Amino acid sequence: MSRTILRYAALTIGAIAMVGPFVWMVLTSVTGDTQLGRVDAPLLPDPATVDPYARLGDAFPFWRFAANSIGVAVASTLLQLFTSATAAYAFSRLRFRGSNLVFLLYLATMMIPMQVIIVPLFIEMRYLGLVDSYAGLLLPTVVSSFGVFMLRQAFMALPKELDEAAYVDGAGHVRVFAQVLLPLVAPALATFAVFAFMSSWNAFLWPLVIAQTEAHMTLPVGLSLLQGRYSTAWNVVMAGSTVSVLPILALYVFAQRYVVRGITFTGIKS
Amino acid sequence: MSATQVATRPPVAKPAARRRPGRARRWRTAGAAAAFLSPSLVMLLAFWIGPMVGTLWVSLQDWNLIGTAEFVGFDNYTELAGDAGFRAALGHTLLYLAGYLPLVLILGLAVALLLDAKLPAMTLYRATFFLPVISSWVAVSLLWKWLLNPADGLVNRALGWVGVSGPGWWTDPQWAMPSVVLASAWKDVGFVAVILLAGLQAIPRDLLEAAALDGAGAWRKLRSITLPMLSPSLFFVTVISLINGFQVFDQVWVMTEGGPGGASTVVVQQIVEYAFSYGRVGYASAMSIVLFLVILAVTAVQLRLQRRWVHYE
Fold this sequence. Notes:
The complex is a heterodimer. Chain A has helices at 2-29, 51-54, 62-93, 99-110, 114-127, 134-138, 145-156, 161-168, 173-184, 186-202, 205-210, 219-229, 234-254, 256-268. The radius of gyration of chain A is 23 Å and the shape is globular. The longest helix of chain A has 32 residues, at 62-93. Chain A contains 14 helices and no strands. The model of chain A has no long low-confidence stretch (mean pLDDT 89). Chain A has two domains: 1-48, no CATH class; 60-266, MetI-like fold. By secondary structure, chain B is mostly helical. Chain B folds into two domains: 26-74, no CATH class; 77-307, MetI-like (MetI-like fold). Chain B has 14 helices and two strands. Chain B has helices at 3-8, 13-19, 23-58, 75-81, 84-115, 122-134, 137-147, 154-161, 173-201, 205-213, 218-246, 250-255, 267-276, 281-309, and strands spanning 61-62, 70-71. In chain B, strands 1-2 form a two-stranded antiparallel ribbon. Chain B is globular and about 75 Å long. The two termini of chain B are 42 Å apart. Chains A and B meet through helix 1, helix 3, helix 4, helix 5 and helix 8 of A and helix 1, helix 3, helix 5, helix 6 and helix 7 of B. Chain A: It is found in: Cell membrane. Chain A: Its main location: membrane. Chain A: Residues 66-255 form the ABC transmembrane type-1 domain. Chain A: The chain crosses the membrane at residues 5-27, 70-91, 103-123, 135-155, 176-198, 233-255. Chain A: One of its GO terms (biological process) is transmembrane transport.
């Protein structure tokens, strides 16, 4: 019994350490300028104000950044689902020469971090005339070897008899893929979709490099600049941070088991 | 197209289908494979594998992106070997890892052990530890920069209540990297914990119960059963955390911008600065290659060492 109480006590301390900073973020975001930065100021803003949120758009097209983030994240997620699922189908359902070798190539790219290829990637985008464009933001993110790997596992768990039955009924590959198998791997698709959206929404390095004008910046890039220009207005900066965390929080509440499944999936496959 | 429909068909259909894998069908399959693979393969070649090869090529050039590239062989690498700034950045990256890795592994293990119980509200607790994991590095870094604000940040205010005067955190060269480490470990504890938790839940309960019957205490069970059984998961998070740690950038860029006075400049930051601020893309690419080789070497060493401590069943 006492052991259970100790466990809860330790977990509660940990939980406070995890949630407390976010609470402070939100509290700061509704604090007026006069109380901000005073060491003797009360912890609870008095009175609370939404003024920092109203000022988010003052120095920057902040809401434009948010719209860019949503657009890029949604497009990137949909395209990743398409490229990953089709490739997963080929690797799990079609026997072709060199299949293992090509799959190895996919796996190998999982080990290449964006940080390592960023310079030639940027040079390539320059040649394509895509620096500071939506296409430039989007293109390097439309394929995920992790997604291919994950969906391939899901496809492989489905019995081959399913396809055979469909072939006998006269279905082609496209129909087998889209109408027979895809609905059956919906949970894996959902898990990967949540993952793809999160990583696109939170991405920083590539958007920082490729977006050069405010028209094409995403929320994380905009936020990082917000602190530079508003060096002391922490309430405005925290309002921006709150806005950037809210959608992902909503997604998490909605799709919690998919998020956790995605994380553990990477762990189990070690 | 359902399975029952097939079952009712005369069995004659089966041998016919089995005889067919002839040349025509093989070609059809190859065509389908090409069609299904091409969306991802084209993108992968264009935006990952191509640039990877490109990094090698560019690293042998002297190029400022404006003029023409000039082949200089390994000059960039030899210059890199004598570059004190790069050595410092590598040192800061290692310093980051030296703080971050033990912190995130020990805390992550502790949280996973605490969460590994069939008790009420565990899902809720797990969700709270996961909040930072799903937030962006930029948001987390800004949040911690504000918490660790030297004068009026919550952390130093709280320290003041108990009579401690807190350090200057990210404004102090000595404390800049520890500030980054603190924020990073806080963000990643939940990630490590969830992976380790999955590993813990795969350990058969009867093993622990049998040990308890034999009189093993909590500490003994942890050392003799839980940790060895958990070693594959521990190995996995260690490898992942190391690879990610070498690429640390976002949180440094936002919290300290590498300062003060270059005290927390890391390797990726140098790559970005040389390529996009100083316009030396060849030199920056050489740094990328070195970083990649370091990650590769460390991962290879870990794979070798795993035989010593990782137990697979």
